Amino acid sequence: MWEHFAHQADIGIRGIGATLEEAFAEAAYALMAVMCNPQKVRPLEPVSVSVQMDDRELLLAEWLNQILYEADTRKMFFSRFEVKISGDTLSGVLWGERMDPVRHEAAVEAKAATYQMLKVAFEDGRWIAQCVVDV
User: Model's pTM, two decimal places?
Assistant: First the structure.
């Protein structure tokens, strides 16, 4: 499960999952949903990423910013995310395809995941991973 939430000038994203990894994957999906319609992105090409931070919240921001970097440099949108977290290291695979602004219904350009409202927490029996995205 993922959702967007209101923020003054930017867009808040939130990933919710039964596990920490699932919440991070859902946050990544919410990030893509800011930029395009991820339901129209075919998961054809895998891109492996790895990030390391000694804080879960900073790990989330770094993960999302790595996705933005890969999307920008490879000119791709992503629709499937596999996440494994071990200690302070996240290993992930992004699945997607080259950008087609018309077919993928491109929306706004996300510039960066910020530290505003950055939160990774276990609440009410589920993990929440959220932040505000600069658009």
Answer: 0.93
